[in-house]
Amino acid sequence: MPQTAWLRAATLNRVVAWHLALLRDLHWQPIMAALGAGKWLGPSSLWGTIMLLRGLFWLVLCQLLGTAINALFLPMLPGPILGMLLLVVFLLCRGQVDEPIQQAASSLLKYLPLLLVPPAVGVMAYAEAIAADFWAVIGALVLSLILSLVFAGWMMQKLIERQARRREQP
Fold it and tell me: Which residue ranges traverse the bilayer (predicted)?
């Protein structure tokens, strides 16, 4: 087996083991919380905990599949990004967001500011490298801002048209 294929297989093995350990660790906490050991991420009943677990399962599964695709086929794209794209495609095919996924996402959304700490530390740690490529960074930021504004405007127009069509239909 070539060196890169072996490395990809070893990386995938580690990623699968990490995700399975995460699922194992997340499995018992909400059940204990529902049985009276306190609340975990919000649900207060066993049914709410089961719904939360189902949603977390789908989110972690999409991330795992994205990481597998990254390790096996597309090493230039991050696995979590591929997983998020898989989740978007899945939700577009379904046409709706199920309650378990919505509940898990809204529970995790409370902790979103914690995800901004590592990039902030990275900016502080690599300030010299960023300063050396200052104009490239500024150019990328301006380009991404313009593309984001154009996309947001286009999406808003589509949503307004969709809402108008729904109002017209009895």
Answer: 80-97, 109-128, 134-156
Q: Classify residue 80 by burial, with Cβ atoms within 10 Å: 0-12, 13-18, 19+.
A: middle
Q: Which of 47, 77, 153, 63 is nearest to 108 (CA)?
A: 63
What is the C-alpha to C-alpha distance for residues 20 and 23, in angstroms, rounded to an integer?
Answer: 5
pLDDT by residue (tens digit) across 54-111? Answer: 888 999 999 999 999 999 998 888 888 999 999 999 998 988 888 888 888 888 888 8
Give the burial class of 84: count Cβ atoms within 10 A of its Cβ; 0-12 exposed, 13-18 middle, 19 or more buried.
middle
Burial class (CB in 10 A: 0-12, 13-18, 19+), 83: buried
Give residue-wise pLDDT tens across range 6-17: 555 556 566 656
Written as six digits, the tokens of 145 are 């801002």
Q: Terminus-to-terminus CA distance in the chain, angstroms?
A: 63
| Three-state secondary structure readout of 79-110 | HHHHHHHHHHHHHHHHCCCCHHHHHHHHHHHC
User: How many helices (H) and strands (E) in the chain?
Assistant: 8, 0
Tokens linked to 42 = 């919000």
CB 30 within 8 A of CB 43: yes
